[in-house]
Amino acid sequence: xxxxxxxxxxxxxxxxxxxxxxxxxxxxxxxxxxxxxxxxxxxxxxxxxxxxxxxxxxxxxxxxxxxxxxxxxxxxxxxxxxxxxxxxxxxxxxxxxxxxxxxxxxxxxxxxxxxxxxxxxxxxxxxxxxxxxxxxxxxxxxxxxxxxxxxxxxxxxxxxxxxxxxxxxxxxxxxxxxxxxxxxxxxxxxxxxxxxxxxxxxxxxxxxxxxxxxx
Length: 215
Hints:
Layout: H1 5-21, H2 28-35, H3 39-43, H4 49-80, H5 89-109, H6 111-119, H7 126-152, H8 161-181, H9 188-201, H10 206-211
């Protein structure tokens, strides 16, 4: 939040109103009541509901992408400190679980607006749909960067970094949608651990990978 307390009050109020009634049903009057501010105060800062909603969504996007970028940067820097040879498996898994936890912790802190973002944004109109897919592309960029680095240091096998990142982000968004909507009883730590384990090791049993499948 910035230095304008009224602006902050309006933004914060909207993060309660939009999840409660949805974007289409929400009105400026709803936000005014929630924020307890005058109409003139609102219109001195926002042209209407659409500009307010865009500001909230863009703020979320910027925040979560910043956190993810910092996490990916940190992982790459840490891998660079492992010395000769591949990084330690336990270290890799721990750092990737921490990255996943960062994402789900963000959703937990912003569950209401995360639900609106993940369930309502696509389909509001073309501009909002593009906003979602632009976010998805930027998120995929970060995972592609991580996969490419894993290939570069010969820790990951030779795959298409972008396609691999698409698969990862597809699964991540599916889980995020369910989690934000409160569908299922998720243990965040366990979900993050299993997600990372499956991405790194796949579904094949370790003894099958080592010995091969026999007829």
